[in-house]
Amino acid sequence: MTTTAAHIVEVAIPLPLEGHFHYLVPEPLVPRALPGTRVLVPFGRRKLTGYLLGSAPAAAGELKEILDVLDEAPLFTPDELEFYRWIANYYLHPLGEVIKMALPAGINLVSRYRCETAEDGTPVIREFLAGGRNVRLERFYAALPDPPVKPRGKGLEILEYLEYLRESDESAEVSGADLRARFGPCTPQLNRLVELRAVRTAEHEVYRDPFKTQIFGKDQALELNEEQKAAHGRIAEALRAGSFAPFLLHGVTGSGKTEVYLQSIAVALELQRTALVLVPEIALTPQLVGRFKRRFSCGIAVLHSGLSDGERYDEWRRIRRGEAQIVIGARSALFAPLSDIGIIVVDEEHEGSYKQSEGVRYNARDLALVRGKQAGAAVVLGSATPLITSFYAARQGRLGYLKLPNRVRELPMPATQLLDVRGKKGLTFLPELVQAIEENLDVGGQTLLFLNRRGFATYLVCEDCGHVMRCPNCEVTLTYHRGKGRHICHYCDYSLPAPSVCPTCKGKEITLLGRGTERVEEEVQERFPLARVARMDRDSTKGKGGHARVLKALEDGSVDILIGTQMIAKGHDFPGVTLVGVISADASLNLPDFRSSERTFQLVTQVMGRAGRGDRPGRVLVQTLAPEHYALSHAVAHDYEGFYDQEIAFREEVGYPPFAHLAALTFSGIDSRQTEQSAQEAARLLRKIKGEVRLRVEILGPVTAPLGKVRGRYRWQILVKGRERSELHRVLFHLRGSFSHPSTIRLVIDVDPVEML
DNA sequence: AGCACGCCGACT
DNA sequence: GTCGGCGTGCTC
User: Measured from the CB, is A711 under 7 Å from any atom of strand C?
Assistant: First the structure.
């Protein structure tokens, strides 16, 4: 046995590189070089932070030595590492980058170079390390007994205050920031007090608490109805059993899902376990955090991308130290360093915002199941309109199915009606909708008008030659935004000033076809001049608080009619809304995406759910060119089962399996001669698939010819959106004849992990 | 990702 | 003559 063998470690580097690297650990660092710590390593001619994975048995070649161990204690546990490895493997992403993404931002050291001028005037390049931890230290003050001398003036006031505190608590300390808040600027006085030995001082780490100044009241568990009790009972039973148990909580809008979450979490806490709650958007966290703070007296941490690096790091440390038992946040909260998780809630599990689409591409809804499995936790996927995938998994018995078919407090579901707009294309509102809005205004109810198209006109046609204005990059039609006075591409943000001349015939007459929210807002104002009208979409809510401002106006009743895009469909609870009008349900129905029916059903159901949540019943009118489409007919009938049955049948028929989030293509055991054939077959299949496709391409075997950008890699993945389909064809083209020996190419698609657990 | 090495075009 | 363009290759 050699002594050095034990001192070889495996290190993951946060760079887009396959594989890990091995280093020697110098003797003095051995006790500190634990798995889960960050280490500073020489890498090429740079110094980088890597993550120590564990000891390695032996390694070939010359090894470099670790320069330093950067942490006193591991940042991640073996369990967490296992989770990171799962992610790296599933999403084909380097482990080092996965770990970096999972840990709070801004704590890594990297070498940088700086040009300095030496004393003799010659420039020198100095290497230094940038980045690093981000702990806030604050100075605390406490009175000492029997001060030898007392100052006068403000100094005396401060001293008397500190002495007063000391009487009730020997160890009472006050931060400099608190003293300055109380006494105004007083740094010189404080320094003087320390100098006089009347006050002692110490530095402590402090947390930056995003909710510090808010005061929360207390509330109590609400009475559950029968279905809520049944759902809660099954979750509680699973928690007591203590093993992995995934559930789909299918509760109609307004059915009280949150109360089920709260009471289930209470059970987990009683069992001394912790809880993780994921919400789709930052905008929804404050509302929910308030509700949790009123209900629970334990530590609650919040994690989302709206926090500063410092705040996030502080919340992370609180969680790691076990000072928070509940974590609430957006998708990145999935990586909260909670120990012994008992329950993971994924609220509005159907929301697309659970997908991370930059860097490590992951879906927090999927990974919640994986983390839950590893932790032996209950995982509750909650939604009024679950993913087809989830519903299918529930049917197959892979997810426990918990149903809340009724609204709480015996509120009825809104009365709904489809309005056929065929042959009435010029009208924004059919007479029935106009009348319903008038009636609703008369009785003082609020109205939501939903249209999933921003801007003023969505289709710009030249009167003279019929040319349609399109984006030169994306081929999509340009949308006219009256507010900005520009023609804008909603795909890439390319824009032209308006009014524009026709690019082909230089004609000046451009007809504005198609309606966006801007035009609907204008029409509503013309038609209902006395109504107070507001608009909510990406354009009208730009900047911080824009979103909250519109919602506040709706809440306090200063808006009668709100026009908006899907933003208005999301989980807000406004008791004053009694009428919902869908201007056109067709925009989302005709998107080139194999999930357009699913999306439309979800969107229409969600927006319908905003109606009648208060004391008065709600009414919904849906205008469409396709009233017999099953997504719409089932939505307005509140017939979930019917819709899911039909959609699952459709998926099976067209070959988009209902257990896959994306479409599936698998090619295995292909040798060089079959490659061309398979590329052609893949291209043919891909033409049939609409929407987004993520392909994992694995080549097992030697690659002998250049493969464009992917040369030298044996595994990679490509995400292909509709308009990038040609990019995939290019890659597949490159695959042809690239293998001198029989190889295996597998093109695999994302499958819901619940199918694999 | 960086950073070096290397091999060709337009510059003081 | 060399400065710098980015193609290619490597990092324990």
Answer: yes
